Amino acid sequence: MVSRAERGPLAEWFWTIDRLFLVLFLALIGIGLMLSFAASPAVAHRIGLDNFHFVRRQIAFMLPAVAVMLGLSFLSPRQVRRAAIIMLVAALAMMLLALFFGAEVKGARRWVSIAGLSIQPSEFMKPAFVVVCAWLFAEQQRHQEIPGNLFAMILYGMVVALLIAQPDLGQTILTSVVWGSMFFMAGVPWIWITVLGGLGVGGFAVAYITLPHVAGRVDRFWTGEGDTFQVDTAREAIIRGDWFGRGPGEGVVKRIIPDAHTDFIFSVAAEEFGILFCMALVAIFGTIVVRGLTHAYREHDDFNRFAIAGLALQIGAQSMINVGVNLQLLPAKGMTLPLISYGGSSEIAICCTAGFLLALTRRRPESRAQERGSYRTLYQPAE
């Protein structure tokens, strides 16, 4: 335990970090590793790999991911902003390269290979995009002559264009929801919200008409006809798990669903550990979102407020999409469950999101001074 009397970067970090946030993120990482032992051996065996192939890779991803999260949590808000700008530029460049030189998987070009590692740059784009847009919105609030909102709209258009070109409709929807929420927080006129909402609906309609795989997934969701094997089996696994589960290793869904260790790991958890366990897992994500929004509400700095809210909503929205697909409440979409599903790019990128959140929510002397000043102003007797 670090004493309050100690001075130094580590002691200051320990006493200023949001320790509940830190515990929740570490808990999710630990649960993800546990569920990797439960879900991935059957998948590895089915495709001819060593049973613990994905488990070993999950551990290999987990160690640098935790290091990245803790390292980023030491940054100041200005350093977070600079790191996000560098990350966003690199991610957008790699997304562009992926369109021309990336490997095509299931009709999409979303990955680039660097030093033998397959990287999905759009995962790293998401937290950086949130932080940079928060900075642009804040600059508009601070200096009305700076067209920060316009720059944020242009940046959003660039990101969406790259995502659609891959194509990746799920990430497009997730990015749009988070960006729209931040835009709303920035106090834009209702006419802009109406226009952008209409464009969003129109864009989805165009995607449905022009992209066969989008139309197929939506039609299967509404009618239940066609190839619904994965979602039907996932729902059956949740039902079979009942309240307390069938026990570790006793699930059957992981033996037949191709994506049991990624998109449908929530169903594996439900079958083996029960609905109560899944409710606790959802509660962890809900606590992260609520705590993040609470921090944002108390913030005096516009950049911190927008960035904290956007990062927390990003984690919450992504987890909601994954769980919604498993429960057949949303059309099937390949979206990982943050820090739970297998995937190196996803885990490290979510830890970047967590690291940014931990850095921006640290208690700092200037923020405490502002709170004391606001308190004195509020309760100062009238002269």
UniProtKB/TrEMBL annotation:
Transmembrane residue ranges: 20-39, 59-77, 83-103, 124-140, 146-165, 177-210, 273-294, 339-360
Catalysed reaction equations from the record: [GlcNAc-(1->4)-Mur2Ac(oyl-L-Ala-gamma-D-Glu-L-Lys-D-Ala-D-Ala)](n)-di-trans,octa-cis-undecaprenyl diphosphate + beta-D-GlcNAc-(1->4)-Mur2Ac(oyl-L-Ala-gamma-D-Glu-L-Lys-D-Ala-D-Ala)-di-trans,octa-cis-undecaprenyl diphosphate = [GlcNAc-(1->4)-Mur2Ac(oyl-L-Ala-gamma-D-Glu-L-Lys-D-Ala-D-Ala)](n+1)-di-trans,octa-cis-undecaprenyl diphosphate + di-trans,octa-cis-undecaprenyl diphosphate + H(+)
GO biological process, one term: cell division
Lineage: superkingdom: Bacteria
InterPro entries registered for this protein in UniProt: FtsW (IPR013437), FtsW/RodA (IPR001182)
Subcellular location: Cell membrane
EC number: 2.4.99.28
Pathway: Cell wall biogenesis; peptidoglycan biosynthesis
Pfam families: FTSW_RODA_SPOVE
Keyword Cell wall biogenesis/degradation annotated: yes
Protein name: Probable peptidoglycan glycosyltransferase FtsW
Gene source species: Rhizobium halophytocola
High-level lineage: Bacteria, Pseudomonadati, Pseudomonadota, Alphaproteobacteria, Hyphomicrobiales
